[in-house]
Amino acid sequence: MRGKSIVASCLAAVLVVATIPGTAQAAAGHARIEGTGSSFAGNALNDWVARAQLQGLPADYTPTGSATGRRDFAAVANDFGVSDLPFRGRDPRTNQIDDAQGRPYAYAPLVAGAVAFPYQVRIGGVMVRDLRLSGLTLARIFLGQITNWNDPQITADNAGRKLPSLSIIVVVHSEASGATAQLTAYLAKQYPILWQQYYGTSAWTEYFPTTPNTGTRPRAYAVNGSDGVMNTVSAGSSNGAIGYTENSYALGAGYPVAKVGNAAGYFIAPAPLNVSLSLTRATLNPDLTVNLDGVYASEDPRVYPLSGYTYLILPTGNDARMTTEKRQTMVDFFAYTACGGQHSVGSMGYAPLPLNLVRAQFDQLRTLHDIDPAVDVSTLDPAHCNNPTFSTGDVARDRLGEIVPMPPGADAGVPGAVPALAQNDTAPCAGEVSIRVTLGTRVSLTQVDPATPGGHPAQAIDPTGHRHAWVFQGDLAGVAVVDTRPVQPGWTVTGQATDMVNGTTTVAAGNLGWSPVLVRAGSDAEGAVTAGPAVRPALQTATSPGLAEAGVLAGAPRGAGLGVQHVAATVHLWMPDTSPRGRYTGTLTLTLISA
């Protein structure tokens, strides 16, 4: 295929031929724990619950909403709560009591994410996908001062590219919302005069004010829930709409979100690792509630300013629901979620917890041992935590500064340096194609049970049939191709592996293979995008080169591929069963080939 080849990302595929970290049963044993609360965190929690149950950690979670989760905790109706907000003392709208009713608790960071701004702006029927909005522009849009997409301030944000005359439809949450709380806290801190003029007070609120204190409102809709926001923004009659919601919902709906201007003058998308890096600038109050002033003010050009996290409400007393076994499950379950569980969150629109927040969570979980000395807290060790944002070993070390790229021009100290956008009132932009690897770190391969037929098969290259292989597999996730070129020239993504090495022992790259798939959730690519063919390891099929040669992960022919296409693969490794146990590491390079 003719075209330009771009090496997009490197993923180290890590193999551990040993007990999977976090699966060992503590001496206290385990008992099922039940949580309720944040719907924002629901997708992440339910994914973790399903994965952890395979490791013998019984847990259930029901996304009833943050307010209900807090009420359930106060009524001792759950084992743990999850909330986008801390207890308020009293609900400012309903006047209902909102506290723990005497049940001892501690807050801990749990699910990191961002408030995103999905929009629908179409020019000649083609969606604009590269919108940039400064914080001041967002404030003036949501506070009713900018009402048309051709406003000069929007034009300035987009490097002189003027959008057509089109009324802005503002979509806000009608219910108590963590996203509303985070947005209004940002407005109150960064644009206090505008916010006070609109709201009449400097306080943030979880209910977006639908009746301003002064001035006029934009054309707006107040709708219930994140799904309601996305359904309204994406409706066929909503050209010109912009809303705010948790990034996971925008990703799931496949809609573009605005890049938001930060304090350094750069326009940044809510990419998972950018959100993670942003939260290293957060400071924690003594009770572990978060102060995001440092995120808002950070002059690191990679920061996404509306980053935040959801709270775990952890019981720290001897109430009727708690037992030693439940506390042990709490420790081991949340240790898993903070470590290995963080590898799956990026593909769902969340962000992995950075090292500072993992340490804060572990500090709170250790109090369960103080309450009940029979609880084993040995799993709460960041130095042995398989989290994609930091390295492990003798001491955990933050890696975000290494794996989050600087924006173009950042190292030259040029704020906002991005390619110029076309200055055209009617035509959509020429666009670009890129590959995004959400977590940009590693694929962990775990052993298939050798007691099963597929876990200890005969090696295909052994003519005697006496030698067998160990089989390992893991998921390559969080990979997407984003194509905004209306001409749709097509693209292909390939992958090629290096040998897997453990000290002086090498397993040839040909013994790696994969089974590619297209991920439908969050994808909106047009035309006949296809997953690549399965590649078998050489020890499984003697004539296969495995991934020692480039294999196709996915492709879009000419006339297809416009939009976002998420791709994934199950990665397979066969290795001789005479290989020594240990940690084998190799590199899988993904290459985007575009016309």
TrEMBL record:
<feature type="domain" description="PBP">
    <location>
        <begin position="25"/>
        <end position="318"/>
    </location>
</feature>
<keyword id="KW-0732">Signal</keyword>
<feature type="signal peptide">
    <location>
        <begin position="1"/>
        <end position="26"/>
    </location>
</feature>
<dbReference type="InterPro" id="IPR050962">
    <property type="entry name" value="Phosphate-bind_PstS"/>
</dbReference>
<dbReference type="InterPro" id="IPR024370">
    <property type="entry name" value="PBP_domain"/>
</dbReference>
<comment type="similarity">
    <text>Belongs to the PstS family.</text>
</comment>
<dbReference type="Pfam" id="PF12849">
    <property type="entry name" value="PBP_like_2"/>
</dbReference>
<protein>
    <recommendedName>
        <fullName>PBP domain-containing protein</fullName>
    </recommendedName>
</protein>
